[in-house]
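Sequence in, structure out. Go.
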Amino acid sequence: MTFNRKAMFSSTSGEWETPIELFQVLDAEFHFTLDACATPRNNKCPCFYSQDALRLSWLGTVFCNPPYGREIWQWVAKGYNEALRGAVVVMLLPARTDTAWWHSFVMKADEIRFIRGRLKFSGHKNSAPFPSCIVVFRGKP
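Output:
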């Protein structure tokens, strides 16, 4: 992936690949069975969805770092709803506390872990221009 300064500081790219060190810490705690939003190049689990993830069932313990564009609300809603069906869903999200999706879904999470400082996402030269958090929806059968 080539560093694109314009994409780094704008909404032209919604892809922010999870830093492997952060994923490893979370995986040691949660033992993920599915990466719900990945590509064959950046998947973090052997089982992953690269297409149709919003239409497929999320089972087990799910990691999700969704695209950060306008459609992010659909991913957060999906994570919340899959947890209501029993999955444990752990999401890496931008901490956008002023948005409707944050108040509709994230505020219903079992945990919100704000990350101190700015993450340096894989494939990017600089740290992100936004704060990040880990949101945990624990499955409720």
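Check: The mean pLDDT is 87. The chain has four helices and five strands.
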